[in-house]
Design goal:
524 residues, FAD/NAD(P)-binding domain, D-Amino Acid Oxidase, Chain A, domain 2, seven-stranded mixed sheet, 2-polyprenyl-6-methoxyphenol hydroxylase-like oxidoreductase, FAD/NAD-bd_sf, FAD binding, FAD-bd
């Protein structure tokens, strides 16, 4: 999840150009020079979400297949269950019976949180998920109240009354709880330890199903469907399958800042009490590529993640892990290491490049869609993937709302991939814009517009630390309730560019192990 939005200290000079409209368009389209996305795509993310609306015919005929059983796949399956009589989820792994780590989610041991914009959609699709997560020990965090957040400008954010709630838990608990609700939907079935080896085309050149291979026996079988959706993640084989069928592979955009992180679990000390529940020492590249974040999770534990960008990877051995924490701009996380009992090994992760496969730009066979990381994989350090998957499921629900039979699918799916892709645009611009701050980032270089936007976001984050109006607007974007262009509204821009600091600075070298709870964050 960290860094949330990268930024660097600046001099306070106002941004005068490009125009506000140009900046808003930059975020609405997600286009950098050399990119040519379809100008007819809906910049607002496609049709609205219709809770509980059942389409197709009364008895919901038809069969839909989802490739992949992670968060994007199971949320997609839940949406499809309102429109198809049978939904099959194909998963390579053997799914655990409880909230356990599995091979297909290698980043599961690291920090995860569900932003409010995603959790709201999940709760509408699967009522009761939020309560079940809390009952299992997930921790609600009200932002900004519950987080001691040191911004790149060396300011601790003021604990204004919480405006957004984040759900903090292990990825395993989040996924297992959602999947437990999905498996109760009678029309959804899971076929596990099965590998898809290719697509099947019907006489009309549309996808009619796929070929499966059992990972345990090697036996193969064909499975037919009216709609196939690829949610198999970063390792998706869809480009290969499309190439085999003569459609070619999608164009790719990649941005890799060589960011890595290292994570360890700690038991929260008995009797610990503080005004804050979580802490975030934000990276400030290029000058300060290091940062760290600590969230509470189920089981009375802290998950502490150290982050390094530009190839400055945090180590996974004990002494160097501690030294890396001690090198941060605040001693807070280093002090945690001194007083909290470690209860896990140190895990590293470095597969963090952003990659967008532009299926929305290519000719695809009918009755095939792509969602989740198969479509657009973000640097996981920014924590966007699960919420974007939920928002893509929301778009899919709207796309299918008017279908009355499987014969309507070709019409309903016309332009559907473009509509789904719009949900990735804002998060993509924030993630890649942050990653482009590191000097050795590969795949793209900062354009003038990138620099202007990043400078403006510096100002947003600086103002958000002490202005409640800017703070609330920023948190709505961070939680993916509003699109990034909301930060360029006529109401907000004067406060960002012309506003004066409202809260006195506090030193950042105040935390000692004996007074871990004494974290001043502004004037209370």
């Amino acid at each position: 999840m960290p860094p949330l939005i990268e930024s660097v200290p600046r001099s306070g000079r106002p941004v005068s150009s490009p125009s506000r409209d140009a900046l808003q368009n930059f975020f609405m389209t997600g286009v950098r020079p050399g990119w040519h996305l379809d100008p007819t795509a809906d910049g607002q993310g496609g049709p609205p979400f219709h809770k509980g609306e059942v389409s197709m015919t009364k008895d919901r005929p038809g069969h839909a297949i989802v490739i992949g059983g992670s968060m994007a796949g199971i949320l997609t399956a839940r949406v499809l269950s309102d429109h198809f009589g049978q939904v099959t989820v194909i998963e390579r792994d053997r799914l655990p019976d409880g909230p356990d780590v599995r091979k297909g989610v290698p980043q599961a041991r690291h920090l995860h949180a569900f932003w409010a914009g995603g959790m709201d959609i999940v709760e509408r699709l699967l009522p009761g998920v939020g309560n079940d997560l809390l009952a299992a020990g997930a921790v609600p965090l009200d932002l900004p109240t519950d987080v001691a957040w040191l911004t790149p400008a060396n300011r601790w954010t003021h604990p204004f009354p919480g405006t957004q709630r984040v759900t903090s838990a292990t990825r395993s608990l989040l996924e297992w709880t959602v999947r437990s609700h999905v498996t109760k939907v009678g029309s959804i079935s899971f076929r596990t330890e099965q590998e898809v080896t290719g697509l099947r085309l019907g006489p009309a050149g549309e996808v009619s199903g796929l070929t499966l291979r059992s990972r345990s026996t090697g036996a193969t079988a064909d499975l037919y469907a009216d709609l196939v959706i690829d949610a198999s993640g970063r390792g998706s084989k869809l480009p290969e399958w499309l190439g085999e069928l003569g459609f070619g592979a999608p164009e790719e955009s990649t941005v890799d800042s060589h960011l890595g992180y290292a994570t360890r679990l700690f038991e929260i000390p008995a009797g610990f009490s503080a005004r804050w529940k979580a802490a975030y020492i934000q990276n400030a590249p290029p000058a300060e590529p290091r940062g760290g974040i600590m969230f509470p999770i189920e089981g009375n534990r802290w998950v502490l993640t150290l982050i390094g960008g530009g190839g400055d990877y945090p180590p996974t051995d004990e002494d160097d892990f501690r030294a890396f924490a001690a090198s941060l701009r605040s001693p807070l996380l280093s002090d945690v290491l001194d007083v909290a009992e470690p209860i896990s090994p140190i895990w590293g992760y470095r597969r963090t490049g952003n990659r967008w496969r532009h299926y929305e730009k290519m000719a695809m066979p009918g009755r095939l869609l792509v969602v989740g990381d198969s479509l657009c994989a973000f640097n996981p350090a920014y924590g966007q993937g699960m919420t974007v998957a939920a928002k893509e499921a929301e778009v899919l629900a709207g796309i299918l709302a008017d279908c009355r039979s499987t014969a309507d699918l070709p019409r309903a799916l016309r332009g559907a991939q473009r509509a789904i892709a719009t949900r990735a645009r804002g998060p993509w611009m924030l993630a890649t814009g942050s990653d482009l701050r590191y000097p050795n980032t590969v795949g793209a270089t900062q354009t003038r517009m990138d620099r202007v936007v990043n400078t403006y976001l510096d100002r947003v984050l600086a103002r958000a630390s002490d202005d409640p109006v800017v703070s609330a607007a920023f948190l709505r974007v961070l939680n993916m309730i509003d699109d990034p262009q909301a930060l360029f509204s006529p109401r907000l821009m004067p406060r960002v560019l012309l506003g004066r600091r409202r809260i006195t600075a506090v030193p950042n070298d105040f935390v000692v192990a004996q007074r871990l709870s004494a974290v001043p964050v502004g004037q209370w």
